[in-house]
Amino acid sequence: MPAIRSRSRGWALQVLYAWESRGEPVALRAFLAQFLSERRVSGRARGYIITLIEQIADHRPAIDRGLQDCLHNWRLERLSVIDRNVLRIGAAELLYLPDIPPRVAIQEAILLAEKYGTAQSPRFVNGVLDALMRAAPAPGEGS
């Protein structure tokens, strides 16, 4: 299961990257459906891709606000598309998927940043998501 979720996170990053690179003309859920219809993605991976993208589609303004609050001297929209969307995936897991341990969500985001980002991306992603984890209410508190 962990390897499938890791691959699913990579696919989710590709979905978000392609969606955002095209100027977001279509709703994220509709774009996901189109993306999955055009790609050969295993059925086992699809479920978690859909879960991640749905959480981001449902909560993107709150995710982006939470991330922006943890960025110091940066604006979310000025980050690279890869870094921004790696952060969104990690934040979605931290904030909305309680079955994913916070340290696992952060480590998986770091791995995505290592694979797809720049040399500075892993440390940056780690710092932002660690700050978000510390700032987020514990499950059952608040939102």
Characterize the structure shown.
73% of the residues lie in helices and 0% in strands. By secondary structure, the chain is mainly alpha-helical. The protein has one domain: N-utilizing Substance Protein B Homolog, Chain A (Orthogonal Bundle). Helix 3 crosses helix 4, helix 3 crosses helix 6 and helix 4 runs antiparallel to helix 5. The radius of gyration is 14 Å and the shape is globular. The relative contact order is 0.14.
What is the N-to-C succession of helices and strands? HHHHHH
Write down the CATH topology. Answer: N-utilizing Substance Protein B Homolog, Chain A
Report on the biggest sheet.
none
CATH architecture: Orthogonal Bundle
The proportion of residues forming helix, as a percent range, comes to over 70%
- Structural class of the secondary structure composition? mainly alpha
The CATH class is Mainly Alpha
Relative strand content: under 5%
Principal-axis shape: globular
What would a concise description of this structure say?
With 143 residues, the protein is an all-alpha fold. The protein has helices spanning 2-21, 28-38, 43-70, 81-96, 102-116, 121-135. It is globular and about 40 Å long.
